[in-house]
Amino acid sequence: MTNTAETISHIDNMDALDSGLSKEFLTIFIDDQMFGIPVLQIQDVLGEQKVTKIPLASSEISGALNLRGRIVTAINVRVKLGLPDLPKDKRRMSVVVEHEHELYSLTIDKVGDVLSLENKYFEQHPATLDKIWKDISSGIYRLDGQLLVVLDVPKLLGNLHESQND
Amino acid sequence: MDELILEFLTETNESLGEVDGQMVELERDPNNIELLSNIFRLVHTIKGTCGFLGLSRLEKVAHHAENVLGKFRDGDLEVTPEYVTLIFESIDRIKMILSELEETGSEPEGDDTALIAKLDAVYEGAAAKEDTPPPPPVEEKKEEKVVGMATEEELEAAFANEKGPDELEAEAKAAEEEAKKAAEAAKKDKANKNNSKAAPKESSVAAQSLRVNVDVLENLMTMVSELVLTRNQLLQILRTQKESEFGTPLQRLNHVVSELQEGVMKTRMQPIGNAWAKLPRIIRDLSIELGKKIDLEMKGKDTELDRQVLDMIKDPLTHMVRNSGDHGIELPEDRVKAGKPETGKIKLEAYHEGGHIIIKISDDGKGLSLDKIKEKAVANGLATEEELETMPSQSIYQFIFKAGFSTAEQVTAVSGRGVGMDVVRTNIEKIGGSIELTSQEGKGSTFTIKIPLTLAIVSALIVESAGERFAIPQLAVRELVMASEQSEYQIEKINNAPVLRLRDHLLPLVSLKNLMKLESPTQNCEVEAEVEEQETSDCTDSEHRYIVVTQVGSYSFGIIVDRVFDTEEIVVKPVSNILKDIEMFSGNTILGDGSVIMILDPAGIAKTTGKSDTSEGADSKKEEDILGSRELEKTTLLLFAAGDKAPKTVPLALVSRLESIKVSDIEYANGQMLIQYRGKLMQLLPFSSDYDVNALEGEDRPVLVFTDNDRAMGLLVDEIIDIVEEHIDVEIAGNSDGIMGSAIISGKATDVIDVGYYIRKNNKDWYKNHGDEAFGSNEEEKRKILLVDDSPFFRNMLTPLLSVAGYDVTTLDSPIAALEMCEKGAQFDVIVSDIEMPEMNGFEFAEKVKSGSNWQQTPMVALTSHATPEDMDRGSSVGFNEYIAKFDRDTLLDTISKTLSQKGGE
Prior knowledge:
The complex is a heterodimer of chains A (166) and B (906). Chain A is mostly beta strands and 166 residues long. Helix content of chain A is 14%, strand content 42%. Chain A is globular, with a radius of gyration of 16 Å. The relative contact order of chain A is 0.21. Chain B is built from 31 helices and 35 strands. The radius of gyration of chain B is 41 Å and the shape is elongated. Mean pLDDT of chain B is 72; it is low at 128-151, 189-201, 409-418, 522-542, 611-633 and 764-780. The chains are: A mainly beta (166), B alpha+beta (906).
């Protein structure tokens, strides 16, 4: 997408994003758990959108929406994680990512800041983590006071495709 | 001017431009083999094309120039500025001829002998290296010497001393004078030169057309499509605002975008005449080969269509025209006999119609022979004779679009080589088109092809169901029907499966809401209420009024939707990968109002509903098979009413008697309804379990009595309506107990009841009593019967009959399956087989069985609807022990038991 300037995911200094020692993540929150998505994968951040339902699709696919002339498939990450959906009156946000030349909007509770995280805080996820969570994340960052789960977009969407095939 | 020449000019001018540049480079770098081969190839192409187009003068020049270039390339001749000049001269000459050609459309008069002589001299001179030098042409004397004798250095030195090219030319001219035919040649050469001074202006043809990569156009097209969508969006917004300052500019934008769209489309448009160009020749050759007289008439060849589409239909068109000439048009003498003019006529027509291109190919030949198609259809196992008998002839004609179908009796050089109409149909359907055939025997046939103008933008019907909107490609939509209580169209239900009577056909319906598993939002009811005030209270299934009649191939069905909006032009975008598995959608798009909408795929819906119907159906065969299994046999049917409104029917042959009983006579024992009947107790069954017998107090009720030996069972119904003789044509498989399916009988949708079900319902009792009388008095010794019948209807009907009679019944739908089973070593006590079956008939089956299979000793009983003496003779000659008529239930059971006891006695 060309139009990131109008979104909060816009970053001025792209070069600094992925230096050897640290990575930039956009933090998002689902059910009060902090997740991080590598900033470079993010196309857009959206507020509430008008979504067209797609009948017969699996439950985590909440529909399709129009993002400046491109059709984006909306995925409800809460459903994917096996969490109850947010109450209707609660505002939610979406992060648009590209996967295999297609756009997906990941519906989440809210978006936080962009954090630069040093690699030394990275860790594989604990063996006891729920399988659903393991399937969509690539690891954990230890932050002050909380943990950040790295949301692995290709894994999340790839997974979705497989479960469709079953 | 000939289009080919025009194309040639464009191409050649381009090539020549390249050669010019490369020659200059070559002069600087004479040893660059790559450059040399490039130049050689270009000149060679020019030569080749000229020869093809019959431009002999041009060809000659190019040919001789090529010779020399060949020498350079092969290293036989050193590239010198002089030679390069010579080649330049040749190329200038070619250009001169070309420009003349462009202006006048033909090659100019002129003599190139001098130039050719020069070229030849160089060419031969080089050749002379190996051979003794031939008497050198005057002009090249010096070179000859050099080439012949000098070393390379000397040669260079010699050339260094030479005069410049201009002088050389002058000298060459002088030298020519000395040659034999020099005088005249030189004059002409001069004249040519004068010409060529004017000639090398930019070629106007080349300047007028540009070669653009298709990808660029494709990309442009996509962008324009997007623009169109955005415009639609803007217009939609504008419509909602009464007064807007954007109105005027938006109207302007609208026009510009429309024009732009048209313009970009035009870049890809080509007249259909391009695809037709070869046809006259094909027809001419064909008529000579086959000794026919054929006129080809072409109308509307300027009709333009998308190049992509054009490419796709080129071959099918050629094929069909060829077919018309080969199969359609008769020999002159036959035509005269039939009272037609000797010369047959094939007419090709193309025109626009509502966003589509219609192409018609018609001939006034002999038309398609129905009988031949039927024969072939049976031979290929596409349908049984019975099925064909009931089909309208138009549907039979459509068989020719099936794979491997050619009615040509012989394979001629022209057609019948296996590439059939099926390929034609596939190609046309691939681009969203459709093909239809109408034919009249003796009068001719007409193929009508309908194809979209372009593949990029399609028009779609926007519908709504349960508050969700969907797009249905307009191409698949046949018509829209509004059904309501008041109108002539009403949705009828058979076991909750909705159907619609549409012009003497039962149209299966699918509800989009159910299909999409949508839940009707409550507000929908209010919307409905507004729309149809008179129906405010009724907001159930029945309020679905609009039926989109959709056609996929030859299969029609209706989609029930809540509302129909208008049509909109949409750009089909593929659905996301993770949705690819949902067959119902062919894509999605963005509508004028900016919302995303899913595009329904009628083919997918047909497939999906077809499948789900069968899984619910009693028979595991595909729905199409059930739909297709129409029986030829006129069956006497008893029509009666029971339970809901739909009339019911049962073959009369299965019913022993019709009785009328007093409800008050019904007695109850052991929780069962009984009645005293002919001195015995007969069990009574209500038609459906929720039948309230007590409510019938005091009335006379008709009862259908089914008997088996001395046991009897009565089925309590409401009313006997009629006895009719009709084909049973089970069009929709039933999905509930007791109903075999639905058929049109006496013009009404009628449930065909499954007698076996009711008998089975009483099964326990029947069985027990039967067990004593049946042949295998022991459970383990239950006799095994193999029933082979292609019709699911008969299999369903006979199986319960035989099983309640105490047999262990195995059913198969084809003799081939039976033979496979035979090979596997299955054993039966008796085989009951139908005679008329596709693929292999009963006679052939019996022959196979009796000629040394495992079942050689197994008695066989033939079941048929045509029990003529000839058939019976044939039956017994191939090994059938007995030959009995279908529906003759008692005889069937008798015969089987007789046959078995005979076998047992042997």
